[in-house]
Write a structure and sequence with these properties.
- The complex is a heterodimer of chains A (116) and B (238).
- Chain A has two helices and five strands; from the N terminus they run αβββαββ.
- In chain A, strands 3-2-1-5-4 form a five-stranded antiparallel beta sheet, with helices on both faces.
- Chain B is α/β, with parallel strands linked by helices.
- In chain B, strands 8-7-6-9-10-11 form a six-stranded parallel beta sheet, sandwiched between helices.
- In chain B, helix 3 packs across helix 8 and helix 4 runs parallel beside helix 5.
- Classes of the chains: A alpha+beta (116), B alpha/beta (238).
- The interface between A and B is medium-sized, with 24 and 24 residues.
């Protein structure tokens, strides 16, 4: 599915992303968080960057320059239903493994978890 | 992540308390450190706790050795103190905010330091030395003086030099900077200490307009923060 673009906050802080996740959760929505935990080479977002996703695929924050968000949102929706955490890896070295890749040539590992 | 943990983390961030979230990637179990308090369902050994404190000390999120635990560091934002509510400041403040800085503008001249010129920005209409003392300067702070007026800039620079702020910039030509050296050395500032001041402030990119000068200053602050000059060890790992 296509992720919805962020609404008004075009440059959210880490605090904004986490506060939004909590607000969605307290509205009774299912929420997942994605976090960059490791990078190699030229990755567009540093370790610690986070993306919050709700059950409709609405998102705030980022884990790349937009290259992998679609695939991360897909995994986030799965995590909301299963309650399981996942560790995703994206890069150019293994193009067949993922539809999404990083055009910049870097590799990132992204941890996806449900907000219980 | 448990809702309660996220709530505690957000409370710590609001209170500007250093915090860290430790996640076991295989299980998703987590522990939150806020101040000196540990909470969560992930048990850590003393060595692991020390590694988390070390990560916090150098502001570095990442995997701990062994790659099974991830530490997410949450420190209060960097701070920029701008002395002088001038045109360059009007461009510099929003740019620094985009880079993640909490910003404060200090200027006792009430005609300059107005809400209209700096909507939503923290303004201190005190003398710079008083203001800087109130604000408290530390390693995660940058100070930039932009007034062109030694009566305002010099006390701010003296306060900055007496602290361990990671960046000091002073606007003004090379000639102005030479005169600044004459005044500050008369105040007992050594050549080595004076060299901490970036003057003229900003990278030499041929900036002309106030906004372009702001770009050059933000770029130089970023260089000092990320490439570790002029105060290497303490900030370099950030």
């Amino acid at each position: 599915m296509t992720a919805a673009p962020p609404e008004t906050n075009i440059y959210p802080s880490s605090e904004d992303v986490l506060a939004q996740a909590l607000a969605w959760r307290d509205e009774g929505r299912k929420v997942a968080l994605a976090t960059v935990v490791q990078t190699w080479g030229s990755s567009p977002r540093p370790v610690g960057s986070q993306l919050a996703v709700d059950q409709d695929g609405k998102m705030l924050g980022s884990v790349s320059g937009g290259c992998i968000e679609g695939a991360v949102v897909h995994e986030a929706l799965e995590a909301m239903d299963s309650g399981k955490t996942t560790l995703l890896e994206f890069g150019v070295s293994d193009e067949n493994a993922w539809e999404a890749g990083l055009a910049c040539g870097g590799t990132v590992k992204v941890f996806v978890e449900k907000l219980d | 992540m448990q809702r309660a943990l996220l709530q505690s983390l957000l409370e710590a961030k609001a209170a500007k308390t250093p915090a860290a979230v430790v996640t076991e990637l295989a299980s998703g179990a987590q522990t939150l450190l806020t101040g000196e308090d540990w909470q969560g369902d992930l048990e850590l050994t003393a060595a692991q706790r020390q590694a988390v404190l070390d990560a916090l000390a150098v502001d570095r999120s990442g995997l701990l050795p062994g790659d099974s635990l991830f530490v997410q560091v949450h420190l209060p934002p960097l701070r920029l103190i701008v002395v002088g509510a001038v045109h360059i400041s009007q461009a510099l403040v929003p740019m620094a905010q985009l880079c993640g800085y909490d910003t404060v503008v200090v200027d006792p001249r009430r005609a300059w330091a107005t809400e209209e010129r700096f909507p939503g920005v923290t303004l201190l209409r005190d003398w710079p030395d008083d203001a800087l003392e109130t604000l408290g300067l530390d390693l995660r702070t940058a100070v930039v003086t932009l007034t062109h007026d030694p009566k305002l800039d010099d006390p701010a620079l003296l306060a900055a030099l007496a602290s361990d702020v990671f960046y000091i910039g002073a606007l003004g030509s090379k000639r102005t900077h030479a005169k600044r050296w004459e005044r500050l050395s008369a105040e007992g500032i050594s050549a080595e200490a004076f060299a901490r001041i970036h003057g003229p402030a900003g990278l030499a990119i041929g900036a002309k307009s106030p906004a372009e000068i702001a770009v050059s200053v933000v770029a130089q602050m970023t260089e000092a923060l990320r490439n570790g000059s002029p105060l290497p060890a303490a900030i370099k790992a950030a």
